[in-house]
Design brief:
Strand order of the largest sheet: 1-2-3-5-4-6-7-8-9
Order of helices and strands: EHHHEEEHEHEHEHHHHHHHEHEHH
């Protein structure tokens, strides 16, 4: 089947930027209890200052221009528009690699690794480690959204990625992803035998215990693994509200996030604070403020807060979860804020590579691009 690939350039109407500035100038701020810090969500003073910066100092046109330096395209797959970055390496024998972001991320997550992965020689690396990169916006996210159909779970996304890579002429390639991308990448390995290897970070389902861990089993875990169990429990008990809302009532949530830029900002920035390393500090400790706001802009300008949330609903109401182990060789990078534990990952995955790091968090490509780049290079080296 032939498929049209259309060059794409981001060109946000000035009226959209003017509307954003007007909304940021007329926020109806809520009250706040004294002394609660981040324990009940984003603090009022912090969000006021960040929103003011967004309104008066952040320059979308500057970041739009930087994004437009990267070749971008759109195509239609399975009835949906798919936007993707496609960066060919100067090395002719480079390995094709598809990178998949998660929530609340976007293709912005990968900006710091594009150069090192496609042109390692220009970044102090070995040219033999070069990749041709395909970086799609997931259906419902950013310039791929909003979606027009139900049923877009991570398995269907993986099927779309297989079609995309085939359309681009890639017959043998790797897959990498974090967060929701760590669900899509293994599914892509199941969907086609063209995937030579799968690399994940910020991995959860399929890489963590399912159900309660007994005291006897807990006693056999390393200190680092027990700390990950603690983070998993804290997430389940205190940080998973967003998940439950997006997995059950994404449409109700969409009204507030679509109408209020400060609401959208708070919904995303909270996760940048909680999931980066160290999580006890402000998110800007780990991720550049402008880069974080550019990521928020891809949700706001495209009106995709709701359609992105629908992916959670689709996954939790899907009957297509695999129960047989995956056979594609799989590498796992566990950063300091991650929760994957090898013994729970091995039954469902063909783990051939496992790395653990003492820095970096959920947004590894933003927080620790050097570590992620090196680990991706190492894992895929044996498949070239």
């Amino acid at each position: 089947m032939s498929r049209t690939i259309t060059p794409y350039r981001i060109d946000v109407p000035q009226s959209d930027l003017d509307d954003l500035r007007a909304r940021l100038s007329a926020v109806r701020w809520p009250s706040e209890l004294p002394g609660v810090g981040w324990s009940r969500g984003v603090p009022l003073d912090y969000l006021k200052e960040l929103a003011a910066y967004w309104r008066t100092s952040y320059d979308w046109r500057k970041h739009e221009a930087k994004l437009n330096e990267i070749p971008q395209f759109t195509t239609e797959i399975d009835g949906e528009n798919v936007h993707f970055l496609h960066v060919r390496s100067p090395e002719p024998d480079a390995m094709p690699l598809i990178l998949t972001h998660g929530w609340p991320g976007s293709v912005v997550e990968f900006l710091k690794v594009v150069g090192p992965l496609t042109d390692p020689a220009a970044h102090g690396g070995d040219p033999a480690d070069a990749f041709h990169l395909v970086i799609p916006s997931m259906p419902g996210f950013g310039f791929s959204g909003p979606t027009r159909q139900t049923g877009w779970n991570t398995g269907r996304v993986a099927g779309a990625w297989a079609e995309l890579m085939s359309t681009l002429g890639y017959e043998r390639y790797g897959a990498q992803g974090g967060d929701l991308g760590a669900l899509v990448a293994p599914e892509l390995g199941r969907a086609t035998d063209r995937v030579v290897g799968v690399h994940v970070n910020a991995a959860t389902f399929g890489f963590i215990p399912f159900g309660t861990v007994s005291d006897e089993e807990r006693a056999t875990l390393t200190d680092a693994e027990q700390a990950r169990l603690g983070r998993l429990k804290n997430f389940t008990d205190d940080e998973s509200g967003y998940f439950k809302i997006q997995a059950t009532r994404p449409q109700t949530l969409a009204y507030g996030l679509h109408d209020s830029p400060v609401g959208q900002l708070a919904w995303i920035v909270e996760k940048f604070k909680e999931w980066t390393y160290p999580a006890t500090d402000l998110p800007e400790t780990a991720v550049d403020r402008d880069l974080m706001l550019t990521n928020v802009m891809l949700y706001w300008l495209t009106g995709t807060a709701g359609s992105a949330a629908h992916l959670y609903y689709e996954n939790m109401h899907s009957s297509t979860w695999h129960t047989t182990p995956a056979t594609t060789p799989t590498g796992v990078a566990v950063f300091a804020q991650d929760i994957a534990i090898r013994r729970y990952a091995e039954p469902g995955n063909n783990i051939t590579h496992w790395s653990e790091f003492d820095r970096g968090g959920h947004f590894a490509a933003m927080e620790a691009p050097d570590l992620l780049t090196a680990d991706v290079r190492t894992f895929f080296r044996s498949f070239r």
